[in-house]
Amino acid sequence: MTAANSRLILGGLFLLAVWHSLDVSNPKAWTFRELKRDLRGLAAKSNNRDEPLILSGLNATSPVRCHNNASYCCGLWNVTADDWWMHHPDWEVVHEDSFKFCFAPVQNDTKRAFIRDLHWLQWQFDIDESSTNEISSLERPLPSNYNFSVNCSDMRATVNINSGYGASLMWLIHSFWEAYTQRKPFQTIQKWPWLYTFSRPDNNSTWANCKERDQTCFYLPISPCSREDKNQPRYEKRPENGNETQVMQRLWIEEYLSRPKQFLRQQLYHLRQPIEHTLRKNGCLAMHVRRGDAGAPKPPYRRYAAVQEYLDQVPNLTANTTIFLLTDDASTIEEVRQHHASKHHWVYTNKIRVHGVEQGFNNHIPAHSSGPDELAYISVEQELASKYCDSLVHGRSGYAYTLFERMKSTGRPIQTYYLETRVLPRSANPFKGKPQERAAFLMQQVQDLYQKQNESNAQLVS
Ligand SMILES: *[C@@H]1O[C@H](CO)[C@@H](O)[C@H](O)[C@H]1NC(C)=O
Ligand SMILES: *[C@@H]1O[C@H](CO)[C@@H](O)[C@H](O)[C@H]1NC(C)=O
Ligand SMILES: *[C@@H]1O[C@H](CO)[C@@H](O)[C@H](O)[C@H]1NC(C)=O
Ligand SMILES: *[C@@H]1O[C@H](CO)[C@@H](O)[C@H](O)[C@H]1NC(C)=O
Ligand SMILES: *[C@@H]1O[C@H](CO)[C@@H](O)[C@H](O)[C@H]1NC(C)=O
Ligand SMILES: *[C@@H]1O[C@H](CO)[C@@H](O)[C@H](O)[C@H]1NC(C)=O
Ligand SMILES: *[C@@H]1O[C@H](CO)[C@@H](O)[C@H](O)[C@H]1NC(C)=O
Ligand SMILES: *[C@@H]1O[C@H](CO)[C@@H](O)[C@H](O)[C@H]1NC(C)=O
Ligand SMILES: *[C@@H]1O[C@H](CO)[C@@H](O)[C@H](O)[C@H]1NC(C)=O
Ligand SMILES: *[C@@H]1O[C@H](CO)[C@@H](O)[C@H](O)[C@H]1NC(C)=O
Ligand SMILES: *[C@@H]1O[C@H](CO)[C@@H](O)[C@H](O)[C@H]1NC(C)=O
Ligand SMILES: *[C@@H]1O[C@H](CO)[C@@H](O)[C@H](O)[C@H]1NC(C)=O
Asked: Ligand 8: which of 198, 205, 207, 267 to mutate, judged by most atoms within 8 Å of the beta carbon?
């Protein structure tokens, strides 16, 4: 069959696909209880020698095994299922443990229809073709030489910005969404490295060294079109407000374009183990304290705020409140240990942090880790906070904004408390080119606040 022929046939299938995806009857319906029951069955078997049998024989051409009439499909960490998930974006991860993971179809009909439509636009590949056939074909990814019939000359593109997690992702999401609304395929142009792809200067051997050095190192590909810069028409969108549907669509686009590759997913699984249990049990208030590049003499002009100031924004704190602290800088953790440890229940990821100021390698990522490690921690923190926290206290930050949107997307009511951390440019500018002095000055302000508090406490006592 020629490529042109297969294009025609796929085009015909598309009409069917749209019809099917609007059909409310979901052929792969499963209930969460069923899934849990089956997984318990699998887990019980994993304690004896049956487990390797159930998932044995998985390989690159057959990376998952589907169960219960294809209501979910599971794989092993040591066999990559990336090619499989790439063209099953309407399946989501529903289970992970130390040696396996499982996908199940997205249950929300509107979301599933949107993702299928988006995927069609991006790849001209009809998901139904692979998923409604018999199970053995569902278990196989597409052959690597599959010819997608996307018209790449019609593609819209964007060059990623080399900024922090929130800003970079927002840029991609909004540009992608713009292309989607114009019914154009979208691709990111490979231009410059993303800061999270850098290793520590003294150690280049990280788990995520990748030649592209951008988002594509971590996330599944979104398009078969070339990433070379050929002056394609560009969509370069800053975040903007939208109505409820638009906000929802952008979140689904975010999920679509940031599906972690398996090696990253495994890393994330291990990173969240030490704290997930606590957060699940207690719930949490998420607190985002941005230091690192806050205070830099460039917009948006920001200061460091004391942890006390964030706490003061939350009227109903109790000794029982579990606070999930998200921060980029060691000074925040030290401050909590010195002044607040006994008053609340604190949870934070145990990455090593240094006192960082924006400069050179520390640009946005002061933690004393390589960029990829930092990205992994950020991803885990966003995931856990959005899953378990019902409130968020934060200052001015694109990262906090993306976190809030994700928390809201779970459908739970989310209470936010905002601390104004903006300052006038003139208070930041004296430190141009002197990041160490700036950080010292800002930290002194934080210290002064506690000093004053101690003094007024002392006066109250006397
Ligand atoms: C399995 O799923 C198909 C639809 O995908 C359905 O037609 C069939 O009845 C199901 N079989 C069983 C045993 O549930
Ligand atoms: C991969 O596994 C499938 C199913 O078990 C099997 O049919 C196929 O021959 C295997 N392929 C390779 C390359 O081993
Ligand atoms: C993956 O690990 C399982 C045990 O968990 C083992 O049985 C299997 O042979 C491994 N597969 C590969 C491809 O290494
Ligand atoms: C799907 O999700 C959207 C957005 O969260 C929600 O408005 C809608 O009611 C959901 N639809 C179904 C069928 O659950
Ligand atoms: C895709 O197209 C190339 C070049 O036209 C051809 O060599 C290859 O066999 C095709 N692959 C498939 C799976 O049809
Ligand atoms: C592909 O897109 C270009 C640019 O929009 C257009 O000129 C061309 O006709 C399209 N090709 C096909 C086969 O649709
Ligand atoms: C790591 O890579 C950077 C950029 O290629 C290079 O400048 C640096 O010398 C390397 N460091 C080590 C320890 O190899
Ligand atoms: C370099 O990084 C790797 C991966 O993070 C780590 O395993 C290794 O111990 C590090 N080496 C040094 C010398 O720090
Ligand atoms: C939201 O925006 C979409 C376009 O993206 C539009 O079709 C829809 O009518 C809008 N909904 C409301 C309630 O304004
Ligand atoms: C804190 O939790 C404990 C045990 O769950 C409970 O007995 C106590 O009343 C709670 N205190 C407050 C102030 O909510
Ligand atoms: C404080 O109360 C609000 C409104 O009842 C609630 O949504 C929020 O989760 C509470 N925050 C904390 C930290 O308990
Ligand atoms: C304030 O007092 C506490 C103990 O009451 C002490 O740990 C802390 O160091 C003092 N802070 C300052 C800035 O003096």
From this structure: 205
